[in-house]
Amino acid sequence: RKNMAKIGKRFKAAQAKVQADREYSIEDAAKLLADLPKAKFDETIDVAMKLGVDPRKAEENVRAVVALPHGTGKALRVAVVCKADKQQAAKDAGAEYVGAEDIIQKISEGWLDFDSLIATPDVMGLVGKVGKLLGPRGLMPNPKIGTVTPDVAKAVQAVKAGQVEFRAEKSGIVHVGAGKVSFGAQKISENLN
Question: Which of 17, 11, 21 is nearest to 35 (CA)?
């Protein structure tokens, strides 16, 4: 017989506070999240929304970015690929890694130690060479979500300020992190809205 996962005391206490058959408003859900027993770490709040769309049809594909008013609570590491004239601006805006061919070379060798990759349109030919590594991990820069842009400084600031990207996966569900439990009910509610 396989070992069954044990349900802990904290989980049971949390379960007791949630009414499974009740539909919670965002405000009530945010209050409840703030009241549930705490873990030993600051838990991330994940949102999963079933949209009832078919993302295989181009006109029903949902993909965009949104700036959360209180950020995600995560410190994101940003890499920027651009020519020399824009590299200082990217560094000043807070990018951890800035370069051109050198960054592409590192990525081609398997380095992916960043959460967001921003590029200028003139270096997308270079970035395309490592597209097979970036694409499956959701790291490929894209003009629709603001990560291919001539204004790298603004893009870095947006990512650092808590801009999140969301897209519908193949069954029409959008899944995205919306902050941390430590934010408290009001900030959680504002981020969710």
Answer: 17
pLDDT value, residue 44:
86
C-alpha to C-alpha distance for 139 and 131, rounded to whole angstroms: 9
- Three-state SS at 154: helix
- Predicted model pTM: 0.66
pLDDT score, position 2: 60
Euclidean distance between CA atoms 56 and 6, whole angstroms: 39
CB 62 within 8 A of CB 174: yes
Q: Give the pair of three-digit tokens for residue 106.
A: 């590192």
| Residue ranges in the chain modelled with pLDDT below 50 | none
Per-residue pLDDT reduced to its tens digit, 125-172: 888 989 899 988 888 998 888 889 999 999 998 888 877 878 888 888
Alpha-carbon span 170 to 94, nearest angstrom: 34
Strands across the sheet with 97-99, in order? Answer: 97-99, 78-81, 116-119
Question: What are the residues whose beta carbons fall under 8 Å from the beta carbon of 139, sequence distance 6 or more?
Answer: 112, 114, 116, 117
> Of 159, 80, 78, whose CA–CA distance to 119 is shortest?
80
Q: How far is 174 from 96, CA to CA, in rounded Å? A: 28
